[in-house]
Amino acid sequence: MRRAVIAGNWKMFKTVKEAVALVSELKKSLTEADDREIIVAPPFTSLFPLSKEIKGSVIKLSAQDCFWEKEGAYTGQVSPLMLKDAGCSHVIIGHSERRQYFAETDETVNRKARASLDAGLIPIMCIGEMLEEREEGETFAVLETQLQGGMQDIPVKETEGFIIAYEPVWAIGTGKTATPEQAEEVHAFIRGRLEKAYSRTVAQGIRILYGGSVKPENIDALMAKPDIDGALVGGASLKADSFSRICQFIRAC
Ligand code: 13P
Asked: The domain at 4-247 falls in which architecture?
């Protein structure tokens, strides 16, 4: 049984003060559970303050992006080593907003993934098709390209813990969630591709999260699907009550 992961991507929201207040609120309602991991991904500025705030709690820390070099004259960039040092265990890579607005490509995603693994961070690698691509029947081809490109030259031993987030672009921030059936179909496809690229054991171990308008109202139905191992949550992770309800999703028996 794969351990579920619920990760909150705060995007460009919350000052340090607001971030600390949210995590201190979350800590009150979230308790240790063997079957799930909880992660928050605040903006860079709140990472270090939150690394202190999460001590002794179940909450883990992720960055929303990184650069692939360890250090150097790269104004504005932050390295995986620095993120690790600031208290992160995870890093989101290749989010569709970065692909759309900041020219992220499968090649840069791959460089970031490999650099993160080298620094001891677990990548949460995002892939997802746009609405036109889905309508043209290109969903699987697009995802296959993103998956192959992003995981290029990542050896089997580095795949342990690796997380993939399937986020259909048309479902992000739109209130339009993929149905559990639509998401499951894609998750099963992704797992099949991982099995082909690596092995059945590797494919069975990698967690595949769904992201795109996840809410307290739809999390239980999504988590009832066998290949959906968790969620990457945007808007609904910005409030303690909605995020903690999502974290406390109820598994269908
Ligand atoms: P929403 O949950 O706001 O749709 O955002 C999803 C997302 O982009 C998480 O990374």
From this structure: Alpha-Beta Barrel (3.20)
